[in-house]
Design brief:
- There is one protein chain.
- 51% of the residues lie in helices and 5% in strands.
- By secondary structure, the protein is mainly alpha-helical.
- Helix 3 (96-106) crosses helix 35 and helix 13 packs parallel to helix 27.
- The chain is elongated, with a radius of gyration of 57 Å.
- The model is unreliable at 842-849 (pLDDT under 50).
Length: 1017
C-alpha cells in the first residue's frame, strides 16, 4: 500500500533554546495541492484530479478542507485501488524537480527564443553566433577604456575587469574560475557593472553559500538595497516585502561630479605609470626589452661576464640575437668537448685532413729544429759581441741581433768610427745642405762670362774690384773709360783672358766665394768620411752615412735591449776602425743564416697552422717554440676535434664574441656558463643604451615613481568607494514616493501589502502583479534554480542578463529555465570541479548507490554543455588564496595548464609535503609508520661484542660547570640521527669502510670493519 499527501500546509518547527520544546508554527508560504501526485496520476493512470490553478476552495477560515476532500473523493470514486483518507502527517516533502519541470513545460514555446538555449538545442555542433568577436583584451584595458567606464566596487585584476566589461557589452560567454581566483568577487563586480549599464540581473546558484557571499559583498559596498534575495530562508513574505520597501525608499542625489574628478585624476596617474611600464616592456629590434635586461643584470650582480660591445644597440634583430645566443652556447659545448693544449692555440684550421696534419707536424718539426739551432748561434754571437748570458730572447731581440750581425758584415773593413760622433744626428742634414751648396755653386759658375777656376775664384779680390768698378762708372769721360778698361783687364787676367764683364761676373763671384767658405766650414769636414769640399760625391757620401746610421741604430737597439751599450760598442770598436775580426764576422754570418732559416720555418709553419706564431711570443721565445712544437707532435690525436673549436671560435669572433672566446680560453668563464655569461654581458652592454634611448627610463626617479604609485592606490580606493554611488545613480528607479501612488496601481497594491502585518499575497502573485515596477525595485535578483521555478511567473518579463555561479554543479535541464528568463547568459564555474550527480535523486527501488549506472550518477553540467557547444570562454588567471605558492603549483601544472598567475609567499621556508626516498624501509602494517629497526637492534653491547681496548681517565675541565668537570651532573643527550650516521661514517672511513646501513648496531659496525680489513689483506 502506497500513501501520498494530498494537501500540503507549510509549517516550521522552532524553539527558543536547546532545552525548550519545539513549537509548530505556520510558514508564510501558501498551502498547495501535491502537484507531483496530481502529475503522477495523470501520466500513469490517466486520472485528472482538480488542480489549484483557479485557487483552492475557501471558507471564512481559509482553505475549505472538507470541500476539497469531497471533490477529490468524487474524482476517484470509479478508480479501483484509490481511496481518500482523512489523516495528517508532519514530514519533509520536496518537489523541486517537478516545479522546475513544470516551469519548463509552461514556457516551452518561449525557450527557443533565447539564443543560448536555441544553440544548445538546435546547433550545438556549430559555432556560437558572435563567438569570433573579440573580447576586451586584458593587456589593452588601459589603452581602450578610461577609468570612468570601469565601474567595479571591489578590487579587480585585468582578467576580472575584462569579463566585467564583456558582461556590460551584452556578450554570452563562459567564465572559467579555478578556486582562489576570486569568482565571487568577479561576479559581484559583474553585477555592479551591469547595473551601472542599466541592466537587470538574475544571479543564479545552487548553493546558498554562493548566493550569500555575493550578496554580502554587494551589501558591504552599498548595493544591498538594490538586490533581492529569493532563496532558502530569504523567501518568506515578510522578508520579501521588506526588501522591496527598502529599495522603494532608496533615493540618491549624487550629481556625479566627484566621480568625474576622481577618474580624471586616476587616469592621469594611470597613464603616467603605464608609460613607464610600457617603456620597461617595450620590445626592441633584438627581441629584448629593458625589463628582461634589468632582470638578467640584477640577477648577475657581482658575477663576472665578458665585456661585449657592438656599434649600435639596434645592431641585432631577434633572429640575429638568437643566433648569437646559440653561438655562445655552442662555444661552451664545443670548448667543453674539445681537449685543449697550449700548443693547439698556434693552430687554426676549419677543415681537418690527414694530409694537412702531416704537413703541419712536418713544419712543426722543422721549426722546432730551427729554434734549437737559433739558440746555439745566438749564444755564440752574444758572446762575440760581449753580451754574456743571452741564449734566448723574443722576436724583437732576435731581429736586433740580426740587424747588428748584418751591419757588421756589411761594414767589415771600413772605417765606421763616425757612428761614435756625438753630433751624428746633424750629419744627415749637413749632407743635404752640402748638396744644395754644390748645386748652387755650379749654377752660378755656369753664369760667368769667363771660365774661372775654383782656385782663381777664391783669390779674386772681389771687394776692391767692385769698388773700382763703381768709381769708374761714376767718373767723367775719358777717365771712366780708362778706369773701367783696367778693371775688365784685371778681372779677365784671373781667367787667362783679355776682356771680362765685371757687371756680370763680380756679383756671381762674390756669391761663389761665400758658398766656398760655407762648404769649407761644413760639419762633414774633418770627419772620417769621403768629404772633398765642392768636389764631394754627395750620393756616395749619403750612402756611406746611411750605412753608418743603420749600424749606429743597430748598435743602440741591441745595446739597449741587452742593457749594455758600452760593452757592445767596445767589442765592435776594432771593426769600426776598419780592422776585421774574423771570429766575430763568422759568428755573424752563422747567425744570419740560422735566422733566415728560422724565419722561413716560421713562415712555412704559419702558412699551414693558420695563425701568426709571434702572437704567442712570451718568455723564452726559442725554448717555448721548441717545447711547443714537441707538444704539438704529442697532441696530434687532438687536432681533428680542435678543428671544430676553430670553426666555432672564428664564427664567434666574427660575430663580436671575441671577449667570450678569450674568457673561455683563459678559464675566466666556465664552458657550462658560456651562454649565461653571454646573456649577462649582452645585458650589461645593451641596457644602458636602451635606457638612454627612452625618455621615461632616462628620467625615472624612484621617489617620484613611488609617490605616483601611492597616489594611484589612494585615488583608486576613492574611485572604488564612489562606485556604489555611481551605480545607485544609474539604477535609480524614479518611482513615485510611497504616499503618492494610487491604490489600484502596481505600487499601490505593493504599498497595501507592505502595510499589512501579515501580507496576504504570495511572492509569486506579487511579482506577477508588478510587471512594470518589479525590475525597477529589484534590478538584481539572487535565486536558485528551484526558486526561479517557484517564484517567477511564466509571463515574467525577461532579465537583461543571467549569471550562474558554481555552474559545474548545475545540471543542464536545471539551468535552461533560468537561461531562458534572460536575454544574455554568463556561466561561471570550474570544469575541474566535480559534476552534478543524480545519486541522491532516486525515488524508486532499494539498494545502495552502487546499483545506479555510472551515466545516471554523474550528469553533464551546464558549464560543460556550454563549453562544448562553443560559447566563448574567458579565464580568471590570478590566484590569490594559497598562502604558500607550492600549494597551488601542482594543480596549476596538472589541471590548469599553468595558466594561473601565482604570487610568491611571504614565508620562504617550504613546509609543504615532500617525498623522502628510503630504499630499504620497512613499514608497520597497522599504521604505515616507518620501522627503522627493533628494540633489540639498539641494546647495549656486551663484552663479547667488543675487542680489547685500554681505557684512561681524562677529565675535561669546564668553567661553566659548578663541579669543574665537563659532563659531571649533565643529563645525557643524543644527537639527531643524520648527525650520528655522519659521525659513524667519518670514524670508519680511515678503516676502509665506505658505507654502513641503518640501524648502525654494534654487530653491523664490527662486521663492516672486519670485511674492510679482509679486503685490504
Amino acid at each position: 500500500m502506497y500513501r501520498a499527501p494530498l494537501l500540503l500546509l507549510p509549517v516550521k518547527l522552532e524553539r527558543s533554546g536547546a532545552s525548550d520544546r519545539f513549537r509548530l508554527r505556520f510558514h508564510e508560504d501558501e498551502p498547495r495541492l501535491n502537484a507531483t501526485l496530481l502529475q503522477f496520476l495523470k501520466i500513469d493512470f490517466d486520472l485528472a484530479l482538480p488542480d489549484s490553478h483557479a485557487g483552492l476552495p475557501t471558507d471564512g477560515n481559509g482553505v475549505d478542507v472538507l470541500r476539497l476532500i469531497e471533490a477529490m473523493r468524487h474524482a476517484v470514486r470509479d478508480v479501483p485501488g484509490f481511496e481518500i483518507v482523512e489523516d495528517i502527517a508532519l514530514s519533509t516533502f520536496s518537489f523541486a524537480k517537478y516545479l522546475m519541470w513544470k516551469d519548463l513545460t509552461d514556457r516551452i514555446d518561449a525557450l527557443r527564443e533565447n539564443r543560448v538555449v536555441k544553440h544548445l538545442i538546435d546547433s550545438p555542433e556549430h559555432a556560437f553566433p558572435g563567438a569570433s568577436e573579440s573580447f576586451p583584451g586584458e593587456r589593452d584595458l588601459d589603452r581602450n577604456y578610461p577609468p570612468s567606464e570601469i565601474v567595479t566596487p571591489l578590487a579587480a585584476d585585468s582578467s576580472q575587469i575584462s569579463v566585467c566589461l564583456a558582461a556590460a557589452q551584452g556578450r554570452d560567454f563562459v567564465v572559467v574560475g579555478p578556486p582562489g581566483t576570486g569568482k565571487s568577487q568577479t561576479i559581484a563586480n559583474m553585477i555592479a557593472t551591469c547595473l551601472d549599464a542599466g541592466k537587470t540581473v538574475l544571479f543564479v546558484a545552487e548553493k546558498t553559500a554562493a548566493l550569500d557571499v555575493v550578496y554580502r559583498r554587494l551589501k558591504e559596498h552599498g548595493l544591498g538595497d538594490h538586490c533581492l534575495e529569493l532563496h532558502s530562508s530569504k523567501t518568506d513574505r515578510k522578508h520579501f516585502f521588506e526588501q522591496l520597501k527598502r529599495s522603494w525608499d532608496k533615493q540618491t542625489d549624487d550629481s556625479g561630479s566627484e566621480w568625474t574628478t576622481l577618474n580624471g585624476r586616476l587616469q592621469t596617474r594611470r597613464d603616467e605609470l603605464n608609460a613607464y611600464v610600457a617603456a620597461v616592456h617595450q620590445p626592441a629590434k633584438n627581441g629584448w626589452c629593458p625589463y628582461k635586461a634589468m632582470g638578467i643584470a640584477s640577477a648577475g650582480q657581482g658575477v663576472y661576464a665578458p665585456a661585449l660591445s657592438w656599434p649600435h644597440r639596434d645592431t641585432h634583430d631577434a633572429q640575429t640575437y638568437a643566433s648569437l645566443e646559440e653561438l655562445a652556447a655552442q662555444l661552451g659545448r664545443t670548448f667543453a668537448a674539445v681537449t685543449t693544449r697550449p700548443a693547439l692555440n698556434l693552430v687554426y684550421v676549419e677543415e681537418w685532413t690527414s694530409a694537412w696534419q702531416e704537413q703541419l707536424l712536418s713544419g712543426a718539426r722543422v721549426l722546432g729544429q730551427a729554434a734549437t739551432e737559433m739558440r746555439t748561434t745566438l749564444r755564440a754571437l752574444s758572446q762575440k759581441l760581449g753580451l754574456e748570458g743571452i741564449g734566448d730572447c723574443g722576436p724583437d731581440g732576435l731581429r736586433y741581433f740580426a740587424n747588428m750581425a748584418r751591419d757588421l758584415v756589411k761594414t767589415a773593413g771600413t772605417d765606421q768610427t763616425i757612428i761614435l760622433e756625438k753630433d751624428f744626428s746633424v750629419l744627415t742634414r749637413a749632407i743635404d745642405r752640402l748638396e744644395e751648396a754644390i748645386t748652387a755653386y755650379q749654377a752660378d759658375a755656369d753664369g760667368l762670362s769667363l771660365p774661372y777656376t775654383r782656385d782663381e775664384i777664391a783669390r779674386i779680390p772681389v771687394d776692391e774690384m767692385e769698388r773700382d768698378w763703381r768709381e769708374a762708372e761714376a767718373a767723367m769721360w775719358p777717365a771712366s773709360w780708362f778706369r773701367s778698361r783696367r778693371v775688365r783687364r784685371l778681372l779677365a787676367s784671373f781667367a787667362g783672358a783679355k776682356v771680362s764683364d765685371p757687371s756680370r761676373d763680380l756679383p756671381r763671384l762674390r756669391k761663389l766665394q761665400d758658398i766656398g767658405r760655407d762648404v769649407s766650414g761644413s760639419p762633414l769636414a774633418g770627419k772620417p768620411l769621403a768629404f772633398a769640399g765642392l768636389d764631394t760625391d754627395c750620393g756616395h757620401l749619403r750612402k756611406s752615412l746611411q750605412t753608418a746610421e743603420q749600424l749606429r741604430a743597430s748598435l743602440v737597439q741591441l745595446g739597449q735591449f741587452a742593457g749594455d751599450v758600452q760593452s757592445l760598442a767596445s767589442h765592435i770598436a776594432a771593426g769600426l776602425q776598419g780592422r776585421r775580426n774574423e771570429l766575430q764576422l763568422e759568428a755573424c754570418r752563422l747567425y744570419l743564416a740560422d735566422y733566415q732559416a728560422f724565419q722561413f720555418a716560421i713562415a712555412a709553419f704559419e702558412a699551414v697552422a693558420g695563425r701568426p706564431i709571434t702572437e704567442h711570443a712570451e718568455g723564452d721565445f726559442l725554448a717555448n717554440i721548441s717545447r711547443t712544437m714537441e707538444e704539438l707532435e704529442q697532441a696530434r690525436s687532438l687536432l681533428r676535434d680542435w678543428s671544430s673549436w676553430c670553426v666555432v671560435q672564428n664564427q664567434a669572433v666574427a660575430a663580436g664574441l671575441g671577449p667570450l672566446v678569450e674568457d673561455l680560453q683563459a678559464g675566466t668563464v666556465s664552458a657550462a656558463a658560456a651562454q649565461g655569461a653571454f646573456q649577462l654581458g649582452y645585458a650589461r652592454w645593451w641596457l644602458p643604451l636602451a635606457i638612454d634611448a627612452s625618455k621615461e627610463l632616462r628620467n625615472f626617479r624612484r621617489f617620484n615613481h613611488e609617490d605616483a604609485i601611492a597616489d594611484f592606490r589612494e585615488v583608486d580606493d576613492l574611485v572604488r568607494g564612489r562606485a556604489a554611488d555611481k551605480i545607485a545613480q544609474s539604477v535609480a528607479h524614479g518611482l513615485d514616493p510611497v504616499s503618492a501612488v494610487p491604490r489600484q496601481s502596481e505600487l499601490g497594491l505593493l504599498r497595501h501589502q507592505i502595510g499589512l502585518k501579515r501580507p496576504s499575497m504570495s511572492i509569486r502573485d506579487m511579482i506577477g502583479a508588478m510587471p512594470q515596477s518589479f525590475g525597477k525595485l529589484a534590478p538584481c535578483v539572487l535565486m536558485s534554480p528551484l526558486s526561479i521555478a517557484q517564484y517567477l511567473p511564466a509571463s515574467q518579463a525577461l532579465f537583461d542578463v543571467v549569471i550562474f555561479d558554481e555552474a559545474s554543479q548545475i545540471a543542464t535541464w536545471d539551468a535552461v529555465g533560468a537561461i531562458a528568463r534572460a536575454r544574455q547568459t554568463i556561466i561561471v564555474g570550474d570544469p575541474k570541479q566535480l559534476p552534478p550527480t543524480n545519486f541522491f535523486g532516486r525515488t524508486e527501488g532499494d539498494g545502495d548507490g552502487d546499483d545506479i549506472p555510472h551515466y545516471e550518477q554523474d550528469l553533464e553540467s551546464i558549464l560543460d554543455e556550454a563549453s562544448v557547444a562553443g560559447l566563448p570562454s574567458r579565464h580568471l588567471r590570478w590566484h590569490y588564496r594559497s598562502r604558500h605558492e607550492s600549494l597551488i603549483a601542482f594543480s596549476n601544472w596538472h589541471y590548469y595548464d599553468n595558466r594561473l598567475i601565482t604570487f610568491p609567499s611571504p614565508a620562504t621556508h617550504d613546509q609543504a609535503v615532500s617525498l623522502a626516498y628510503i630504499p630499504h624501509g620497512v613499514y608497520d602494517r597497522g599504521n604505515g609508520q616507518l620501522l627503522a629497526g627493533s628494540m633489540m637492534d639498539y641494546t647495549l653491547p656486551r663484552a663479547r661484542d667488543l675487542p680489547r681496548f685500554n681505557s684512561i681517565l681524562a677529565p675535561s675541565p669546564a668553567t661553566s660547570n659548578v663541579l669543574g668537570v665537563k659532563g659531571a651532573g649533565e643529563s645525557g643527550t643524543v644527537g639527531p640521527l643524520p648527525a650520528l650516521m655522519t659521525a659513524i661514517h667519518d670514524a670508519l672511513k680511515p678503516l676502509g669502510v665506505a658505507e654502513i646501513e641503518m640501524p648502525a648496531t654494534p654487530a653491523r659496525v664490527w662486521a663492516a670493519i672486519d670485511a674492510a680489513q679482509r679486503r685490504g689483506g
